[in-house]
Structure formats: structure tokens, C-alpha cells
Amino acid sequence: MRLLERLREQTLPPTDFEVVVSIDGSDDGTLEAVEGFAAPFAISAVRHANQGRAATVNAGVARARGEILVILDDDMEPTPELLAGHLHEHEPGARVGAVGAAPFRLQEPMPPFSRYRGERFNDLISELARRPESIDFLEAYTGNFSVRRADFIGAGGFDATFDGYGLEDYELALRLTRTGVRLVLAADAIAYQHYDKGFAAAARDSESRGRSTVIFASLHPSDAAGLEGLPNPPRPSVARRLFRYALPRVTGVVPVVPALVLGLVGISERRRIRLLPFAYELGLEYFYLLGMREAASDRRQSARGRRW
What is the pTM of this model? Predict the structure, then answer.
């Protein structure tokens, strides 16, 4: 409910916007809380069975009536100027997808993984802010994002094939650019992120993201090269190449490897070793590659089944 409370404080008059809360199968009382929320703006909710973020956002858009869509994840805390900041980017005739700034609040006390995640994401925002030109689809995130409804619908909305975690935002951003939409950073449309996941939960997300990468590559094979990072990353060390390519393969033979990786990262956290950020990076990369291998294997088995 924090997000709804902050939307009460917008500098934009409450008669100038509506809020649609799209719920992905949750039965924890969210629907009832929304229905009982005393809002100065028009508010409604839509709920459907668990289908993933892409389908959930599409359902909310189908309910919305406004010309400009602002998409916010439920872990965002909008500043009072957020909606006005997004609106500023959509001048008459402009076709833009505005990525709102979504910094982490870095403060003490803070779990080590949350700080690691926050510092990396804040570095990305700082890099985008230094560049006045359009941003790349691989830099676009849609947890704080706005676009004209006509452009969103014209591009086909989110692809509901992405029913797990990750990459549905990149894929939509790519299709938007192909229709002539320019991606920009809306530096004044700020919403602070609240991230409370530990490494184990982030590892599950990273594995799901690896599976989503295989979906993305099947849809846009010529645009998938940069998904793991920079287009031309520095050549990794021998040790890192062994970790990246050997360990995911070993997992198929030694199923306890994921638990061992989680355990080793956990020990590194408790001891606060100097190389803890590197341990996080390698650990997340392992689960990402593991997800890719699993998804690729599933597709091969499915293809063989169709031939039979």
C-alpha cells in the first residue's frame, strides 16, 4: 500500500489521473485492501490467475482509459513529482518511452546483498543520466516507465510468453523502438526502489532470467548478443571461464551444485570477505547460465517430441 499512499501526494491533480492495480493471482488481501483504499483519484483493481508480470501488466492496461500509461512495480515509492515528470516527457507529437529514475536508498543498517544490488543499479542510473541521447533497449526497465497507450498497443504490449522473471521489459522496449518510439531517461520521474530479497531469492530470479533469455533469443536472435552485458566484454580469466562454462554442465551430473554455490556465497556473506561482490557476481552468473541450459534442454526435448 506504500505505492498508493505516495500516489496521494502527487503534484499532478488527482482528477488528472487514474490508478489501476493489476494483481497476479495473489489472495493475500491485496484486492480487498485496494477496494477499501480511500483515494482522491479514480482507482480500480483487476486480478487473474498467476500468469507472470507481462500478462498482468497487459490486463491492467486493458482496464486503463488514459492516453499516457505509467507502469510502476509494487516495490516502488514514487516521489511527489513522479507523474508530472513522466508527463513532461510526452509533449504533443512526441513518441517516447520514458524510463523513470528508480534509485535504491542506500543506508545503514542494510543487508549486504541489498547494498550490492542497490549500488550496481544506482551506477546504471548515473551512467544513463550522463548521456543526453536516447538509451538502448538493453538499458530500459519498466518498473517505472511511461509510454503513450497507442504506442504500447501498437507494439503489441508485453509478450505473455515471458511468464517467469525478466527480459519482458527489454523485449517490449525493442519492439517499441522498431515502431519509431525513442527511449529516454525521465530523470525527474523518480521512484525509490525497496529491495528486500536475499541472495537465494535473487539466485532464483537469475535462473528464471536465464530461461527468459532463451525465449528472447528465439524471438529476436539477431538482437540477443548483448543480453549478458557489454557487447564486447573483456576476456574472462581461465578460472572464470571454468566457472561459467564447466559448473552449469556439472550440475546435470551432480545435482547438489546449486546448494553448494548458495552455501559458499552464504559463508562469504557471514564472513564479509573482501571479494564478496565478486562472489555475488559469479553466483548470479552461475544461476543465470543454469537457467539458460535448462530452458535450451527443454526446447530440444520438446522439438524431438514434435518430430516423433
Answer: 0.88
